[in-house]
Amino acid sequence: MTIGDLIRLMRDGEFHSGEQLGEQLGVSRTAVWKQLKKLEAMDVPLEAVKGLGYRLATPLELLDGADIVARLPRDSRTRLSRLIIEEELASTNALLRERFAQGAGHGEACLAESQSAGRGRRGRGWESPWGRSLMLSVGWRFESGANVLEGLSLAVGVVVAEVLERHGLEVALKWPNDVLLKTPHGLAKLAGILLEVSGDLAGPCEVVVGLGLNVDLPEEIRARIEQPVAAVHDVTPDVSRNRLASELVAGLLDLLSGYEEQGFSTWQQAWMRRHAYADQEIEVIQQSTRYTARVEGIDASGNLLVRHNNEQRRLAGGEISVRGRS
């Protein structure tokens, strides 16, 4: 019995007694009770009524591989070599890196209901409530080397923005890899992107594109995050996780399949139209150095162009962070 098995039985919204759940799952009532306690610890809210049993306080839509693949356009299906869905992983990116080490990985996509060691840029942790986010990774092999990947994380941001905008969300992109939701109270983080590259600058290289997207974010988790955050369901509560997953997989596969020939210049203007801090003053943080600069744009390689003390500076990714100034 897994957490997913238990949730599948309870997602009908009806009350289920521990005895009924045990019979259906082929385990003892004690085993069911232990799993129910795990659900509560994982921020999956339950309702318990004496004499009736337990039910999910909020419906959960579990990931469905057949549904995701069925929604893919024909071209995307041909590009997808394998779809992997797991209930729990340390990291979807790590799994695809392992697949590449085994000689696979190209054209593969991996999704997980939860991950225990998910991380964002610069090693930051990523909160991922069970069954309420999209933790997605896509692997791709490029023949021309890592130097053709300039600006790829920004192009991924455009793909994510386009998918979300089709569902009525108004988003902005923060350089180099955050997707923000525009709210009445300002900008709030909706998704983060993490690219991991192996190989050399001139020869074949392998890329894992990782995306963490908040779909439904409980208040108790928001309270633990030290920045404004948002979720898709804040704006469109009825949108399907599986539909979002399918559209994101399709968009990323289409992007990756043509990026070697097109490069970032194809996506540059689309990114600029969504730039969260266009023509604004920002705070630039580079290790122990901080300074204020005005954003002037991005170049064809995805570098951020800023002006500081009447001098234009070109910022690459790596250990540089930028923040808006209120």
UniProtKB/TrEMBL annotation:
What keywords is this UniProt entry annotated with? Answer: ATP-binding, Biotin, DNA-binding, Ligase, Nucleotide-binding, Repressor, Transcription, Transcription regulation
Q: Which EC numbers characterise this protein's activity in its record?
A: 6.3.4.15
Please give one Gene Ontology molecular function term for this protein.
biotin--[biotin carboxyl-carrier protein] ligase activity
Q: Which domain of life is it from?
A: Bacteria
The reactions it catalyses are: biotin + L-lysyl-[protein] + ATP = N(6)-biotinyl-L-lysyl-[protein] + AMP + diphosphate + H(+)
Domain BPL/LPL catalytic, chain residue ranges per copy: 61-260
| Binding-site positions, biotin | 91-93, 115, 119-121
Q: Name one GO cellular component term.
A: cytoplasm
A GO biological-process term: regulation of DNA-templated transcription
The record, for Pfam families, names: BPL_C (PF02237), BPL_LplA_LipB (PF03099), HTH_11 (PF08279)
Residues the UniProt record assigns to the DNA-binding region sit at 18-37
What InterPro entries does the entry give? aa-tRNA-synth_II/BPL/LPL (IPR045864), Bifunct_BirA (IPR030855), Biotin_CoA_COase_ligase (IPR004408), BPL_C (IPR003142), BPL_LPL_catalytic (IPR004143), HTH_11 (IPR013196), Transcriptional_repressor_C (IPR008988), WH-like_DNA-bd_sf (IPR036388)
The record describes the protein's role as: Acts both as a biotin--[acetyl-CoA-carboxylase] ligase and a biotin-operon repressor. In the presence of ATP, BirA activates biotin to form the BirA-biotinyl-5'-adenylate (BirA-bio-5'-AMP or holoBirA) complex. HoloBirA can either transfer the biotinyl moiety to the biotin carboxyl carrier protein (BCCP) subunit of acetyl-CoA carboxylase, or bind to the biotin operator site and inhibit transcription of the operon.
Name the family the entry cites.
Belongs to the biotin--protein ligase family.
Q: What is this protein called?
A: Bifunctional ligase/repressor BirA
Q: Which gene encodes it?
A: birA
